[in-house]
Design goal:
Oligomer: single chain
Number of helices: 4
Strand content: 15-25%
Largest sheet: 5 strands, antiparallel
Order of helices and strands: HHHEEEEEH
Structural class: alpha+beta
Strand order of the largest sheet: 1-2-3-5-4
Helix content: 25-40%
Length: 133
C-alpha cells in the first residue's frame, strides 16, 4: 500500500492545528469560548492564510468577543458569541443595517462566529464622528 504525499501532509496539518499555540489570543479564545472553538478559530485563520494574533496588543477585547485588525489586508475579523442568547449583554446581531459594517463572509467556529469585514478608516472630522455615535 502506498501513501500519497497529500494524505501525509493533510494529516500532519490537521494534527498541528489541534495543538493550540501558547499565545494571548488562544488563551483569550479558550477562556471566552472553549478549547474546541479556539481550535476552529485558529483553523479558520490558517485556511485563509492570515496570521492569527499573538499577543494582547494585536486584538481588541469586547463584550461578546474580540476584533482583529489586519491592516495589511484591509480586513477586520469580528469574533463573537455565536448564540446571542448566551451573551451576558443580551446583544442582537445586526447585519442588515446601513449603520453597521456588514461582513463579507461569516464562518461558523463552534461557540463563536468569525465575521470577515472590510477595513475602513475612521472619520477624520470630529463633528462627523459624533454623528456616527
Amino acid at each position: 500500500m502506498s501513501v500519497r504525499k497529500d494524505d501525509v501532509s493533510s494529516e500532519f496539518n490537521r494534527g498541528a492545528v489541534d495543538k493550540l499555540p501558547e499565545t494571548a489570543f488562544c488563551a483569550f479564545l479558550t477562556k471566552k469560548f472553549d478549547r474546541a472553538t479556539a481550535v476552529k478559530v485558529i483553523e479558520s485563520f490558517k485556511k485563509m492564510d492570515l496570521p492569527p494574533p499573538q499577543d494582547e496588543k494585536e486584538f481588541l477585547v469586547g463584550s461578546d468577543g474580540c476584533l482583529v485588525f489586519l491592516n495589511k489586508y484591509g480586513l477586520v475579523m469580528r469574533i463573537e458569541t455565536a448564540d446571542l442568547e448566551d451573551s451576558k449583554w443580551g446583544a442582537d446581531r445586526i447585519n442588515d443595517s446601513g449603520w453597521i459594517l456588514n461582513p463579507l463572509a461569516t464562518i461558523d467556529a463552534g461557540k463563536a462566529i468569525v465575521e470577515i469585514c472590510p477595513g475602513c478608516h475612521f472619520e477624520k472630522e470630529t463633528e462627523s464622528r459624533w454623528f456616527l455615535w
